[in-house]
Amino acid sequence: RSIIYDRNLNKTRAAEVSYSAFAFLFSEAIQYTQKRVSGIADMERRLSTLGYRVGIRVLELMSWRGESTSKAPKREIRLLPALSYIHTQVWKTLFGKPADAIQKSVENDDEYMIVDNDPPITRHISIPREMSQLNCSALTAGIVEAVLDGLGFPARVTAHSMPTDANPSATVILIKLDRSVVEREEALK
Fold first, then answer.
1. 43-44-50 Cα angle (round to 5)
2. Residue 9 domain-assigned (yes or no)
3. Confidence of residue 58 (pLDDT cuts 50, 70, 90)
4. In this structure, are residues 91 and 105 in contact, taking their beta carbons and an 8 Å threshold?
5. Which of 8, 24, 69, 166 has the CA that lies 20 to 30 A from 60?
6. How far apart are CA 184 and CA 168, in angstroms?
7. CATH code of residue 126
8. Which pLDDT does position 11 carry in this prediction?
9. What CA–CA distance (Å, rounded) separates 127 from 169?
10. Dihedral angle sign, alpha carbons of residues 79, 82, 88, 92
């Protein structure tokens, strides 16, 4: 019988986790956390922290797979390719599809938004009425923050519900970049 540590990571690239198993695990994490928090902000902070821990591992796994299969692996040093990598590759790895859009804020030059009109992470979560302001996509925001930090683009990432008639569960992942990132991008122009 083989041990999980002996398996080749590249052979599990196409493997998928059962969506119902993920939904059950995430639901249990929500219930466990809900019993140990004092409010919605605390709950979202804890979900974001959990997501950050997941994001570190996702980036490590994706980097390892990319380096082992590519003859000339590269690391993104510019912001837009890094955001595009998150929008497409990371999202596909996590959710099986790319995010719906990525946008730059018109008001602030240090803000970007990743839009997901139907986030799989919240598809089967029912939130109690007293916690209606809770956005469980805080977990996704934590993942994005960890990936950005790991790529060398420190940022503060939050999740916000932006429902529309066509997409009642639409979520925006707001990325507020550290000033040093904006200054570095300006210097590279």
1. 95
2. no
3. very high
4. no
5. 24
6. 37
7. 3.30.1380.20
8. 62
9. 12
10. negative
Per-residue pLDDT at 75 exceeds 90: no
Give the C-alpha distances (Å, rounded to integers) separating 58 from 89, 93, 112, 181, 185: 11, 8, 21, 22, 25
Sheet with 111-116, strands from edge to edge, namely 101-104, 111-116, 171-177, 155-161
48's tokens: 């974001």
Q: Which of 61, 30, 68 is nearest to 46 (CA)?
A: 30
Residue 152, domain member (yes or no): yes
The total number of structural domains in the chain stands at: 1
Q: Coil, strand, or helix at residue 111?
A: strand
| Structure-token match 């590269």, residue found | 74
Question: H helices within 106-169, ranges in order?
Answer: 138-151
Instruction: Give SS3 for 121.
Output: helix
Specify if 3 maps to a domain: no
Spatial CA neighbour of 45 closest among 113, 121, 112, 145: 145
Q: Which domain holds residue 39?
A: 17-71+78-188
In contact, 82 and 76? CB cutoff 8 Å: yes
Name the residue type at position 96. G
Cβ atoms 45, 135 nearer than 8 A: no
The C-alpha R_g of the chain, in whole angstroms, comes to 17
Compute CA 105 distance to the chain's CA centroid, rounded to the nearest angstrom.
19
Does 54 fall in a domain? yes
pTM of the model: 0.89
